[in-house]
Amino acid sequence: MPTLEASVEQDDTTAIDAVQALAEPSSDESRRREFFTRDILQAFRTSQFLQVESHYQELRLSLAKHSKLRNDWNSYGAEKPSSHAIEAIVRLLSRLRNESFLPLTLVPSAEGGIAAYFKANDRVSYLEYRNSGEVILAMYDQHSEPDVRELSENDADESRAIALIREYITA
Amino acid sequence: MPSDSIHFANAPITEAIIAIVVEDLPDICIEQIRQLAQRVLSEYPKTRDLSHAEFVGEISAEGPPKASARQKALGLQFQSEDSKQIFQARLNGFSFHRLAPYDRWETFRAEAFRLWDLFREAVGEVTPLAFSVRYLNSLVVPAPGRLEEFLKLYPAVPEEWPQVLSNYLVRLDIPIQDKNGYAGHLTTVQTLLPSPPRPGTPSQQGIASILLDLNLQYPASGNSNETLWQRIDAARSVKNHLFDASLTQAMKARIL
User: Fold this and answer.
1) B158-to-A4, A100, B163 alpha-carbon distances in Å
2) How high is the ipTM of this complex?
3) A17-61, pLDDT tens digit by residue?
4) A46 touches chain B (CB under 8 A)
5) Given B155, B193, B205, which is nearest A53 (Cβ)?
6) A25: Cβ contacts below 8 Å, ≥ 6 apart
7) Which residue among A55, A73, B35, B73 is least crowded, i.e. fewest CB within 10 A of its CB?
8) B133 to chain A nearest CA, in Å?
């Protein structure tokens, strides 16, 4: 009778190891995960739960790619996202996954770091974790001045940022 | 214990869906669906447009290839503040979704019924064609662990093969009948959900989450509204029976 193998992600695996394992193109594990992720994506569009799960996996795959960037990745001298910035985004994603409120995409920052972008109609918001440790929240649309705030990297500020983004994006 | 009265304290339901397919409504009904937003604003303050994209390519011997695309409004999705409760009002149907935590059938069904009535009031006469009752479950099991200790439905692997699975995907389409003899169709999917497990699961090490998706679909042409909802109730009984039969005692003990 078949036995399930041990769960892939162990406690001693860092977030960086985990996202890099996802990105490794020669990794069979990565391909297997991608196959099942894509299957879920294509086959189960009618389930909100599975849409969130598959989008979460897509974001993790894109994060894995961003984690492999080199310095000067944009040819304008941008630093690659630091392991600290990536770990912060992993934590954010995990939290947002549970709230069924995931960003549209993840984008490496020209300032050095990584940002989670949210978009609805003409409203855009992003939460950027910089290599320097700064956390920037920005909300903007075509009709008003951008609202940009500097936050701290702690649970309270992160909760506040999520609430603000949610309110702005879904207004 | 009769299947209808099963209630697991730690029910593994991640999403429950009641969906009703209706005969296509005229495009003008989109405006009536939009007006529904005001009526449900307090419980479902978030809305999202649903659209349908069509891409047409044409190749002929006489001229260059032509391509066109158009997007057609299909309806609206309404979400509760916490995004745990969702319903869709579309030109081709209605669906109500409850994400975890799931309470019980009675409250879930009552809200679906209320919203369905609002949908009918908004768009006028509708003709149901089919309905489905779907439950997605996330079963948390030890890994490594033997599937047959927890599930009665699992892939049989020849003894001569390696006995360790990295992942698997089982999809079965099975004809079914409810207690009144109405014929329908069960589509069930079982697969491992991708790692890492969701926060809140007992432990992130040494466990795996298995998706058990039970989707019961029935034709409903010619059914009155009363009959339709009686049949939805009957489908729930079938679902309970199937779910109960797919778990071992060890799995039931984990979710009791």
Assistant:
1) 15, 40, 8
2) 0.74
3) 545 544 444 555 565 556 555 544 545 567 888 888 889 989 999
4) yes
5) B193
6) none
7) B35
8) 12
